Amino acid sequence: MKTTTIAKASLQPPSREPARKPDTAVVKKGLFQSAATLVMLFFGILMVVPFLWMISTSFKTPAEVFQYPIKWIPADLRWDHHIKVWTGDNSFVHYYLNSLKVSIISTAGATFLSAFAAYGFARIYFKGRNALFMIYLSMMMVPPQVLFVPKFLMFDWAGIYNTHLALILPGLFTIFGVFMMRQFFLSVPYEISESAFIDGAGHFRIFFQLVLPLAKPALATLAIIDFSWHWNDYENALVFLIDDSLYTVPLGLQNFILENTVDYNGMMAAATAGIIPMIIVFLLGQRFIVQGISNTAVKG
Amino acid sequence: MKMNNWMRRQSMLGYLFIGPNMLGVLLFFVIPALYSFYLMFTDYKFMNPEVSFVGLDNIKRLFQDELFYLSLKNTVIFLLSVPVSIGLAFLVAVVLNGAVYMKKLLRALFFMPYITSGVAIAFVWMLLFQPQQGPINGFLRAIGFSNPPGWLSTTETSMLAIDIIWIWFMLGYNMIIYLAALQEISSELLEAARMDGAKRWQIIRSIVWPLVSPTTFLLLITGLIMTIKTFGIIQAITQGGPGNSTTILSLFVYQNAFRYYDMGYAATISWALFALILVITMIQWWGQKRWVHY
């Protein structure tokens, strides 16, 4: 106690005096900025409280789950809930593999096919192009609910209902992706193509050797956004899959929760397993995501 | 003649590039949409192989269905979350765009729910909202509410709880777009206003807010459409209950199609959903011309 007062007393005068003399406005501004930061930090942490609570609960004992005031760091870390999620008959390893398979194939295909089509829409002049693009845009208005029933009947007829193909095949085509890549290709100066034409290159070479390398950031953005859609896609999986062995992570999670209705710690360990890959994608790709979202929205 | 050949070649190339994607769009969007439109006029039930044309019966049934009106009402309550989220996002964006430290960290904190959250986080909220022992009501009791709401467990408050989750989820997306829009406002303009003695709040209200009106409008339209299409989180945590109090239109389609296998009727409801989106899009076309100043 004593040492702190001494420390304060000896520290305060020299640090305050010079600051006040040069410019009170600067100090005032700094104080305001600090206060604003603190307030925003409070709300910002409030935004991620559900994540923190989820992770914290996944390490607690059942008795600690609903203790109030909340014990953020449990007395001893319990790993058994996580072990339960990752082992056994309905292990999340299984759901992860299914999700990775569906998400990676869909994302890779959709990113390439979108870029390919977007090049056609943005950089080749041909009859009916604008009319076609209007049809594309109008399809964005059709809610997925309109398509669920006919797709269910068509997939059942084609024999791909209740297979991963029912998620992968439609997943290869995204209208948003075409729209986004077209925006990007329109911004690439046309002179680049012209000089390549003079050198005798055709559209295919220009696309693969000139435009596609330029589009790497845009492709990365689309791939990240598309991957997160497929990873989080619960609705399509719900409609088109019935066998547990085919379940992707969101359905696996639901399955786990239906089978363990009172095991709250297990539920939160399972939810953590579902969210972790997205947190990694978010941390690694935040820059691309922010760029992509603001570009399509502000220019679109 | 030579020009004609060139044009034809260009068209061929164009279709070659668009072709693969177009095939998919045709198969998975256009044909199902037409098929669904046809189903609207049939009594197709998945278990019953006999299909007959019933004309407008499904539409008549829709307008007499009390559950349709209830789910329409719930959809409207769900949509109220959109302007609230946009308003909050505007405030957050203005502060983050101005004088604060740790901008990147703060932006990431607000943005995280939007990117990372699928159904998984819905289950977390389900526990947070737990009425007897959940942490939210624990907090409310601690600050003096002896009788906190039942949230997802009562018909009166279940939609409110869903709205809170949705506001939380959409906030980051709206904020990111506002931040991009705020970057476009010239700092000289704001400086000039400050020189003339305008207060911080006055600048925000009478300069910044009108200048970002195109963004606000765009967020409103895209947010409404996106919200109308959603049902995953609701299906995951309430399945439309308690007592249909969280059955929104999109979920109503799902239930009729895949719980009752009443395909014709489900298709009909889905087109009502489309009509709602169409109205919002038409407001956008109309509004872009008069309401927004670029």
UniProtKB/TrEMBL annotation, chain A:
Gene3D superfamilies assigned: MetI-like
Subcellular compartments: Cell membrane
Classification via Pfam families: BPD_transp_1
Transmembrane segments: 30-55, 102-121, 133-153, 165-185, 206-225, 264-284
Main location: membrane
Iron-sulfur in keyword set: no
Domain of life: Bacteria
GO cellular component, as recorded: plasma membrane
Chain coiled-coil ranges: none
GO biological processes: transmembrane transport
Positions of the UniProt region annotated as Disordered: 1-22
Keyword Transmembrane: yes
Keywords: Cell membrane, Membrane, Transmembrane, Transmembrane helix, Transport
Membrane disposition: Multi-pass membrane protein
Stretches assigned to the ABC transmembrane type-1 domain: 96-285
Family membership: Belongs to the binding-protein-dependent transport system permease family.
Name this protein carries in UniProt: Carbohydrate ABC transporter permease
Species whose genome carries this gene: Paenibacillus pinisoli
TrEMBL record, chain B:
CC terms in the record's Gene Ontology section: plasma membrane
Keywords: Cell membrane, Membrane, Transmembrane, Transmembrane helix, Transport
UniProt-annotated location(s): Cell membrane
Superkingdom to which the source organism belongs: Bacteria
GO terms (BP aspect): transmembrane transport
Protein known as: Sugar ABC transporter permease
UniProt family annotation: Belongs to the binding-protein-dependent transport system permease family.
Membrane topology according to the record: Multi-pass membrane protein
Domain ABC transmembrane type-1: 71-284
